[in-house]
Design a protein that fits this description.
Elements (H helix, E strand, L loop, with lengths): L20 H21 L21 E6 L5 E3 L2 E3 L1 H12 L6 E6 L5 H13 L5 E3 L6
Parallel strand pairs: 1-4, 4-5
Antiparallel strand pairs: 1-2, 2-3
């Protein structure tokens, strides 16, 4: 009875063949692992989720045209308005969703104090979107 402990065959030469037994053992272990784990991975819970539309609704904010003439008189969308009524209109506009944009058109001879008071009133009521409208070439 002899045990071959080296990598030599009966003739004393080096063996050039691969021993397939460990490779087959490893492949069988991997196969068993995959057979066990695949059903666990594919286990899912069925959910009935609600459907939603994919298009986005763009709500354009209303535009309020405010103008101040050289005398300091105000107009709201072309309609003359008193300073006391302006406060109420600004408060109502601030409560709308989406919040409207104020387009401010000021005469070039208007005192800055009138513009500052209007901007202060808009800010006090929470209206933050203010645009200055100018006429080109003037």
């Amino acid at each position: 009875m002899s045990f071959d402990t080296g990598g030599f065959d009966d003739d004393g030469e080096v063996m050039s063949e691969i021993n397939m037994t460990p490779l087959v053992d490893v492949m069988l272990v991997l196969l068993i692992i995959f057979i066990i784990t695949v059903p666990v991975i594919n286990h899912a819970v069925k959910l009935d989720l609600p459907r939603a539309s994919s298009h986005q609704e763009d709500l354009k904010p209303e535009k309020i045209n405010l103008s101040i003439n050289a005398d300091g008189r105000l107009s709201w969308n072309g309609e003359g308005v008193a300073t006391e009524a302006l406060e109420l209109r600004l408060q109502n506009a601030a409560g709308r969703q989406p919040q409207p944009e104020l387009h401010l058109q000021v005469d070039k001879r208007t005192e800055y104090d009138h513009v500052a008071q209007l901007l202060s009133a808009a800010s006090r009521h929470g209206l933050g979107k203010v645009a200055f409208v100018t006429e080109p070439g003037k």
